[in-house]
Each structure stands twice: as structure tokens, then as C-alpha cells.
């Protein structure tokens, strides 16, 4: 590959992950039958070509689904704790390769190296969780109303699970799904984002190697590559009972309709429009840190990024000034350089969306507090580096109602009771993450109550961004309603069967119905 200006260990990382051959990133990706058009992966960090992969054709896809379906027949019969043992071995490899994989995530996607490492840590955490879960795929036992009968439920694997993921969490979202689906006994076919194809190949290489060394049938982890047309091969395919799709609400609406049309199941993790409510009792220092990290972390490209700050009028000026001051400290630049806080946006289309949103908010009557703009010159050659911006805006503005995947923070005032802030917070179509900063117990509990936040995630004295794998992750309304990762999210990857066993010599019917011959 071409040398990057300052390498930051990228060449070594690509080598360690087996994706160092620029012309053939897929060469070692087992179960990847791709033979179609070439996709080039350019880094938003420095604009360099990192590698090329081949996209999946219809014929390639047929081979993948056949291999996955065949592999599933063996995998489903292996005891779940033994499947857990395979996931444990896969996790050993993730631990060993954490730094190179974190680096590739940072270089291909543009998030800071610390966040790249954090993403791989999430993979490690969910695998640990899945290993324990492999001994806890419990059903319930119920009392039968009929004498001499036993009733219970059990969970069986679903089959082949299709995973469609977004560019902004190019590796973690795959593992949230696969680690659970694998211990549940499913085979997985993954279509990663066309914007981050090499991270997908790197992950597939790791899984394929571990699986092959441990006699796991080919097809339990499969990768298909390409744009939405490749995703559509799965959404239209009746052989795939569950599609787990992460991405924009626009995509989710199309996928939901397609899969529902064949009565398949979907797990949808879509866009957010997340707010922090700042009450008069908030700890201002923590509020500033939480809000700034939430708004500018990953360059505003997290589904949980803080987009709106709803501040009580009594502390409005104080919080506003503190945040505007904090923005002056933000360093923008190469995300592999740990001195920088903010890296680039994913590509120039995203830069355009960011610019359009800033124009729009002014047109709608907003007031820019921290100017945005595209950075140029040395270190910014990729054209994807932008300045995090802040605008005072009204919640009903069309642009505020919309998720712009960029570092733009809208701030607004509320008066009186916390219920007024909740009306604003809930007054958007999305329902992913939400937060309140307060030391007032009544306000905190009202925020969490049935009349409080309508989001899937509701935090007190923490920002909106970032979540632990132990809880179920996802959101309501246009965020899609799906839950993945911790808690009992595993149940979506299995089918529930209710079993009733009669151990008498009679045949009593339920509800006392008499039927004698
Ligand atoms: P995107 O919707 O453009 O693409 C996501 C994936 O869907 C890609 O792999 C793409 O190829 C595929 N796709 C698009 N249209 C499809 C179709 N019709 N059929 C099948 N597949 C299709 O999203 P993006 O720009 O990659 O990611 C950003 C979006 O993802 C944001 O809206 C963000 O909030 C959301 N996101 C949500 C979560 C969550 O957990 N809620 C997590 C990460 C990202």
C-alpha cells in the first residue's frame, strides 16, 4: 500500500489483520465468495486508498446462503455451552488483535483511536456476555391445568440470521448480533457498510480462522460485500428468518416493509435525535463534559450523539457560555493522533449534509453561536474535517426534527416545570437516547416515569452517548423498536416453543371440553 504521511502503525495493523494486500482485501476472507465489482476503500483521515474488495454478485450470494444453511444444520445440534466455548476462543483472538483492529476502525471510519479501541472492547465484552449466556438460554416451566401433564417452553435457534450494519460502528454492531446469534445456534451472514469494507473483511478473517481451527462448519460466519442491492438479496430472501438492520430510518422503513411482506422478523436499530435536559439543579461541570463529548465525539456520527440541549432559563446563559468556551478547547485533526479530540466525517457527502444543515438552521431563524466550516490545508487534505458548530434553535424547526449525522448541537430554552422540557425532548419522531442532568430527585424520577422520556435509553447525570453491553440497546418510534446486546435481547435470535406432555393414560382436553367417542 502507499505510505501515509505519518503512518501511526497502520501498515503493521493491516498486516496483522491480513488485509495488507491493497488489491485483494478479500483474499483470506473465508466464506467470502465475492467475485463482482471492485469497491475501493479510501480513508477519511488522509484520503489515501487503503484497499480494494470485490462485491458480492447474485451467483456468489447463492453460494453463501447455501453454505450458511448447510452449516446451520450441524451447528444447531452442538450443545450451546460448546458453542460458547468457540465464541470464547474467538474472543481470545479479539483480545490479541485489539490494537490493530482498533487502529483499522479509526483509520477506515475516522473515529479517534481511543474510540476505535473502545469499539473493539465492546466486541470483547459482548463475547464474554455471550459465553455466560450459552449456559443460560432458559425457558420457563408452567403448571398445566390438566392432571398428569407437564408444560414448559424451550428456545431453538432460528436459522440463518442476516445482519446489515452502518459505517459508524463498523465492527461492534456485527459482534452484538453474531456473538449472541452464534451461542443461540444460528448461522450469520453479514453485509457491512460499503463505506468500511476492510474492517468487515478483517473481522471475517478472525472468525473464519478460529472457526476452521475448531472444526466449526463453514458458513456459520459469512460475509457479503457491496451496497444496498447486496443487502436487498437478504431482505428479499425467505431463507433468512431474521434481518437485523442498523442504519438510517430511511433504510429501516424500506427493509421493514420488504421483510414484513414475507412475514420475516426484523430487528431495527435506526436513527436518533437525542437530547439532554439541563435543570436548574444540574452539576454544570459534568453537564459540559457530557454534552461536549456527546455532541462532538465520533464527529457527531453516533446514533446516540447529543443533538439537542434543552436548558432551563435560570441556568441558560451560564450553561451556554460554558459550552461555547469548552468548544474553544477542541482539537480537530488526525484521529490516530491522541492529542486530537475530533476526527473527520466519513466522506464528502456527509460534509455536504453538514453544510446544508447549517444553512438551513439559519434560514429557519436559528442563531449560530459557534461557527462551523470545512477545514483546509495541511493535515486536512481529505476534505472531510469540519468544525463542530452550535446553534440556538427552536425544537419545531424542520432541520432540528431531522437527524444530521455531523457535529451540530442545537440548544434551546425551557421555562417552568420539567414537564415542559420533556415535551420538547419527546417532541421529535425518533426515540433512541435521552438524558437529564439534575440533582433533584423528583425531577429525575419524573424523567424516568411513565410520563417521562419516551426513549429506549434514559440516563440520569450521564450524557446520551455511549452504552454498556449489559443492557438491551435500542429505541422507540422512528428508531425502529429493536433491542440488541444485553438483558434478554438474545430471545430475538431464537424461536420459542411451548411443549405440553401428557404422562397419563387419559386424554383430558384443555378448558374442560368433553369429546367422547
Ligand atoms: P445507511 O442507512 O445509509 O446504511 C446502513 C446499511 O444499510 C448499509 O450497509 C447499507 O448498504 C444498507 N442499506 C441501505 N439501504 C438498504 C436497503 N434498501 N436494503 C438493504 N440494505 C440497505 O446508514 P449509514 O449512513 O451507514 O449509518 C448512519 C445511520 O445509522 C444513522 O442514521 C445512525 O443513527 C444509524 N445508526 C443507528 C444505530 C442504532 O443502534 N440505533 C447504530 C449505528 C448507526
Automatic annotation (TrEMBL):
InterPro entries: Ald_DH/histidinol_DH, Ald_DH_C, Ald_DH_CS_GLU, Ald_DH_N, Aldehyde_DH_dom, ALDH7A1-like. Pfam families: Aldedh. Residues 37-498 form the Aldehyde dehydrogenase domain. PROSITE patterns: ALDEHYDE_DEHYDR_GLU (PS00687). One of its GO terms (molecular function) is aldehyde dehydrogenase (NAD+) activity. Gene3D superfamilies: Aldehyde Dehydrogenase, Chain A, domain 1 (3.40.605.10), Aldehyde Dehydrogenase, Chain A, domain 2 (3.40.309.10). Its EC number is 1.2.1.3. The active site is at 269. SUPFAM superfamilies: ALDH-like (SSF53720). Keywords: NAD, Oxidoreductase. Homotetramer. Belongs to the aldehyde dehydrogenase family. This is aldehyde dehydrogenase (NAD(+)). It comes from Mangrovimonas spongiae.
Amino acid at each position: 500500500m502507499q505510505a501515509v504521511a505519518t503512518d501511526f502503525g497502520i501498515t503493521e495493523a493491516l498486516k496483522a489483520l491480513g488485509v495488507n494486500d491493497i488489491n485483494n482485501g478479500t483474499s483470506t476472507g473465508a466464506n467470502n465468495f465475492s467475485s463482482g465489482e471492485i469497491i475501493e476503500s479510501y480513508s477519511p483521515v488522509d484520503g489515501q486508498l487503503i484497499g480494494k474488495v470485490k462485491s458480492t454478485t447474485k451467483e456468489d450470494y447463492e453460494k453463501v446462503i447455501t453454505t450458511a444453511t448447510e452449516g446451520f444444520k450441524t451447528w444447531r445440534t452442538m450443545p450451546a455451552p460448546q458453542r460458547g466455548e468457540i465464541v470464547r476462543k474467538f474472543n481470545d483472538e479479539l483480545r490479541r488483535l485489539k490494537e490493530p483492529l482498533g487502529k483499522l476502525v479509526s483509520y477506515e471510519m475516522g473515529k479517534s483511536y481511543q474510540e476505535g479501541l473502545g469499539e473493539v472492547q465492546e466486541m470483547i465484552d459482548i463475547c464474554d456476555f455471550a459465553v455466560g449466556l450459552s449456559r443460560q438460554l432458559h425457558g420457563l416451566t408452567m403448571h398445566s391445568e390438566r392432571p398428569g401433564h407437564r408444560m414448559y417452553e424451550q428456545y431453538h435457534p432460528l436459522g440463518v440470521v442476516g445482519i446489515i450494519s452502518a459505517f459508524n460502528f463498523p465492527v461492534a454492531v456485527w459482534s452484538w448480533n453474531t456473538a449472541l446469534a452464534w451461542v443461540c445456534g444460528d448461522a450469520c451472514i453479514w453485509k457491512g457498510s460499503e463505506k468500511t469494507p476492510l474492517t468487515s473483511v478483517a473481522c471475517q478473517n478472525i472468525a473464519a480462522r478460529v472457526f476452521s481451527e475448531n472444526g466449526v462448519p463453514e458458513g456459520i460466519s459469512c460475509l457479503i460485500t457491496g451496497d444496498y442491492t447486496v443487502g436487498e438479496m437478504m431482505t428479499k430472501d425467505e431463507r433468512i428468518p431474521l434481518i437485523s438492520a442498523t442504519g438510517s430510518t430511511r433504510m429501516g422503513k424500506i427493509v421493514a416493509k420488504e421483510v414484513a411482506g414475507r412475514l420475516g422478523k426484523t430487528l431495527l436499530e435506526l436513527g436518533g435525535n437525542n437530547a439532554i435536559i439541563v435543570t436548574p439543579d444540574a452539576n454544570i461541570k459534568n453537564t459540559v463534559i457530557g454534552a461536549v463529548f456527546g455532541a462532538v465525539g465520533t464527529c457527531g456520527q453516533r446514533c446516540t450523539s447529543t443533538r439537542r440541549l434543552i436548558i432551563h432559563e435560570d441556568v441558560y446563559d451560564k450553561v451556554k457560555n460554558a459550552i461555547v468556551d469548552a468548544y474553544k478547547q477542541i482539537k480537530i485533526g488526525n484521529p490516530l493522533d491522541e492529542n486530537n479530540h475530533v476526527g473527520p466525517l466519513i466522506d464528502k457527502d456527509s460534509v455536504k449534509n453538514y453544510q446544508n444543515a447549517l444553512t438551513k438552521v439559519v434560514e429557519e431563524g436559528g442563531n449560530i453561536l459557534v461557527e462551523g466550516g470545512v477545514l483546509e490545508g495541511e493535515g486536512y487534505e481529505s476534505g472531510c474535517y469540519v468544525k463542530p458548530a452550535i446553534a440556538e434553535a427552536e425544537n419545531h424547526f424542520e432541520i432540528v426534527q431531522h437527524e444530521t449525522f455531523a457535529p451540530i448541537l442545537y440548544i434551546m430554552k425551557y421555562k417552568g416545570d420539567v414537564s415542559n422540557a420533556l415535551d420538547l425532548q419527546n417532541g421529535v419522531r425518533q426515540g433512541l437516547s435521552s438524558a437529564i442532568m439534575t440533582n433533584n430527585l423528583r425531577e429525575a424520577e419524573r424523567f424516568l416515569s411513565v410520563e417521562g422520556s419516551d426513549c429506549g435509553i434514559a440516563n440520569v447525570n450521564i450524557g446520551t452517548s455511549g452504552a454498556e453491553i449489559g443492557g438491551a440497546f435500542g429505541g422507540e418510534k422512528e428508531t425502529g423498536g429493536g433491542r440488541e446486546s444485553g438483558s434478554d435481547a438474545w430471545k430475538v435470535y431464537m424461536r420459542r416453543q411451548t411443549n405440553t406432555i401428557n404422562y397419563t393414560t387419559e386424554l383430558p382436553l384443555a378448558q374442560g371440553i368433553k369429546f367422547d367417542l
